[in-house]
Specification:
- The complex is a heterodimer.
- Chain A is mainly alpha-helical.
- Chain A has one domain (11-218).
- The termini of chain A are far apart.
- Chain A has helices spanning 7-30, 34-59, 62-90, 102-124, 134-151, 155-176, 182-210.
- Chain B is an all-alpha fold.
- Chain B has a domain at 274-482.
- Chain B has helices spanning 2-20, 26-51, 65-94, 100-122, 126-144, 150-185, 194-199, 206-224, 232-239, 242-271, 275-295, 301-322, 325-356, 367-370, 372-385, 392-407, 411-434, 450-464, 468-480; strands spanning 54-56, 61-63.
- Chain B has a two-stranded antiparallel ribbon with strand order 1-2.
- The chains are: A mainly alpha, B mainly alpha.
- At the A-B interface, helix 4, helix 5, helix 6 and helix 7 of A face helix 5, helix 6 and helix 8 of B.
């Protein structure tokens, strides 16, 4: 053994990051406090950043470093800070949401994970990249965030679910391919930021009109 | 060069009006910017007609006969809607429903929306197409909630969340497509360029591409308003300002369908079997049927025509799903006819509901007496959208149905039945609104009648005679769709 080869280690680290991301997706699904939810979201962003940086190092793709930096700035710093300021100004920092049936939600979540792994299996075979294991996890965290959006009755957690969904998509982009072209990634980041501002404006409009951020008040438009 | 000019007008307009949109002349400035955009689109169309294809920025933007026709349509309807919007906004301000800051938001976002649509249409990069589609949602979401009523906030929230989630599926589909393309084209920006992908479509991995198409169809299909993903559409159309309903129905739905069609070409090339076509036909027929059933139960006039849009988008999706030269030709023709007719209807509906002070159809009565032009506009528009000859919608629907009888006989009875139900529902509701005893008051601003009749005249002319230039153009575009 002449020298230690770090590549397998970095490879395993990638799998570790991916599974941590999935774990956080589950934690978000069952988290009732808004503040903790934001912290979890920031952690998920950080893990995504590390995972992208790790794959950049593994594949020697310099543009992935930019992508990691972009994720760090937007997903770990700007978005959580914005969310923090928002919930402080909306005065919902200590809001606790009543979630019914957490065990059932978790079980359905596990079902989703199994489903995504099955869906990703035939595709992963074609992956020439060393990151093939993570595609299933990425799809699973997309679906879990999707489910979180469905089960929540308040506006802020729904939006956090939406942002977490974007995290899952970014993991998919870096795991299936070596990241999207830079111009696309910048465009997506811009959309996410603008979207966040619009969500912020919305929160205030909703509260002004309904005196609460509970979206139960917004189920009037139906076909009778 | 022409592409840059085309894109710069709405972008500059958005910035300019975002700063000064509350001024008294802002509606006029909005119209002038839209006119300039239409002019630029005209120049671009002439060049594409001469050269076949125009590209810019290392092929990141490419305009061919298929998208130039949609660029032209978008710029035209964008212009006439800005025209209608002048009178509509004037009346709303008089009624005290719009404050200065909301006017600024409205005008700025209107131009920004046109900008995102034109970027989505002209870009050759499927990733940028996604970015522009998402940006189109972002620009319109605050317009849907412009009146800040509880119902409009709910509609906007639903629109934002549903389209956001939908479009996230489309991003996953785009990622999968990139994944398949990268193996053939290598890494880097070129692997998402449609023209490059179209050259190597036969070598793309079928499993990945078909999965990618499912995600793309569900994602962009949400924006097209395909059932069962259509929930946001009637609410967003009904609660927002009427000019926005007109551009959502007439333009946004088309552009979303355009995104699906571009990817369908790639999938067909990779799979050598009509997988994408079957999916689209299924969604299309289902949307037509669902929309027809819901049409009967509507009370709100804008919801009624929103469901009619779902029906027609379903019909187009079905036509493109069948594929082949005739069906694609019919689909493109129907796209044009539906855009023109539906926006004309929304112009008439906007004035009618401003006059009556309500969108409830039971309270809109006797339009033909209080304002004959709006009444006739609504009546003729409704007849045109229901596929009455000699309007153009008849020609395109006839082509779609005859092709369906030939190639997909199973679908014909469903489509015919749904069209019949839609006829009974819409005509039965429009007739008493136009005739019957008069209600309603005079509008402080004269209604913009010209755009309504300009659109309807175009639909009538195209129904009677399709100029050879236009026919060749449609044929070239249909050929690009395979």
């Amino acid at each position: 053994m002449s020298h230690w080869n770090p590549a397998p280690f970095a490879q395993q680290l990638l799998d570790l990051f991916a599974s941590l991301l999935l774990l956080i997706a589950f934690a978000m699904l069952s988290q009732r406090r808004i503040l903790t939810l934001i912290h979890l979201f920031a952690w998920q962003g950080l893990i995504l950043t590390l995972s992208i940086a790790d794959s950049a190092w593994l594949t020697h793709q310099p543009h992935l470093y930019y992508s990691a930096a972009l994720t760090l700035i937007i997903k770990v710093l700007i978005l959580p800070l914005l969310l923090h300021r928002l919930i402080r100004r909306l005065d919902v920092v200590w809001d606790v949401e009543t979630l019914i049936n957490i065990p059932t939600t978790m079980l359905v979540g596990i079902g989703l994970v199994v489903f995504s792994f099955n869906l990703a299996l035939p595709i992963s075979h074609f992956s020439s990249t060393i990151l093939r294991n993570t595609l299933g996890i990425a799809l699973a965290s997309v679906l879990l965030s999707f489910m979180m959006m469905i089960t929540r009755r308040k506006a802020v957690p729904q939006v956090i679910g939406f942002l977490a969904l974007e995290n899952g998509l970014f993991l998919a982009a870096t795991s299936a391919t070596y990241g999207m072209p830079m111009v696309v990634e910048l465009g997506v980041a811009l959309d996410v930021l603008v979207g966040m501002f619009i969500f912020g404006i919305f929160f205030f409009q909703i509260r002004e009109t309904f005196d609460s951020l509970d979206i139960r008040h917004m189920e009037k438009l139906k076909e009778e | 060069m022409e592409i840059w000019v085309l894109l710069s007008f709405p972008l500059l307009g958005g910035l300019w009006l975002g700063a000064t949109g509350q001024r008294a002349q802002a509606p006029l400035v909005n119209l002038l910017f839209s006119l300039a955009t239409l002019g630029a689109a005209g120049f671009l169309a002439v060049r594409v007609l001469q050269e076949g294809r125009v590209s810019a920025w290392d092929e990141q933007f490419v305009v061919d006969p298929f998208n130039v026709f949609l660029v032209g349509l978008t710029a035209f309807v964008g212009m006439t809607t800005a025209w209608f919007s002048r009178s509509y906004v004037g009346n709303e301000v008089q009624h005290g429903r719009l404050s200065a800051s909301r006017l600024r938001l409205y005008h700025g976002m209107y131009q920004a929306f046109l900008f995102t649509l034109l970027v989505a249409l002209t870009t050759n990069n499927l990733g940028l197409l996604w970015v522009a589609m998402e940006a189109a949602t972002l620009t319109t979401v605050l317009l849907v909630s412009l009146y800040r009523t509880p119902a409009s906030l709910e509609a906007a929230w639903k629109y934002f969340i549903l389209c956001g989630v939908g479009i996230a599926q489309a991003l996953f589909g785009t990622i999968l497509l990139y994944f398949a393309a990268e193996k053939v084209l290598g890494e880097g920006g070129n692997a998402l360029l449609w023209t490059h992908l179209a050259q190597v479509k036969g070598q793309l991995e079928p499993t990945i591409v078909s999965l990618a198409f499912v995600f793309l169809l569900v994602g962009y299909g949400t924006k097209v308003g395909l059932a069962p993903l259509h929930n946001w559409l009637p609410d967003a159309h009904a609660e927002g300002p009427t000019p926005i309903s007109a551009v959502l129905s007439g333009l946004l739905l088309n552009v979303a369908l355009y995104a699906i069609l571009r990817t369908k070409v790639l999938v067909d090339g990779a799979l050598h079997q009509p997988f994408a076509g079957h999916l689209m036909m299924g969604f299309g027929v289902f949307s037509v049927a669902v929309a027809a059933l819901f049409l009967m139960r509507q009370k709100d006039i804008k919801r009624l025509f929103a469901y009619s849009s779902i029906e027609h988008m379903g019909l187009m999706t079905f036509a493109f799903g069948m594929g082949g030269a005739v069906a694609n030709f019919a689909g493109l023709l129907h796209m044009t006819m539906h855009s023109l007719t539906k926006s004309a209807i929304f112009f008439a509906v906007g004035h009618a509901s401003q006059k009556s002070g309500t969108q409830l159809m039971t309270q809109i009565r006797g339009l033909i007496r209080t304002s004959p032009t709006i009444g006739w506009g609504l009546l003729l528009g409704a007849l045109a959208i229901l596929g009455m000859p000699p309007f153009g919608v008849f020609a395109s629907e006839f082509l779609i149905l005859t092709t369906a009888m030939h190639e997909q006989p199973w679908a014909t009875p469903i489509l015919l039945g749904a069209l019949g139900v839609a006829f009974a529902a819409i005509f039965g509701k429009v007739q008493p609104m136009v005739f019957g005893p008069a209600t309603g008051q005079r509008l402080p601003h004269p209604p913009a009648i010209l755009p309504v009749f300009l659109h309807l005249t175009l639909v009538l002319i195209l129904g009677l005679y399709l100029p050879p230039v236009l026919a060749t153009w449609y044929r070239q575009a249909a050929a690009l769709l395979g």
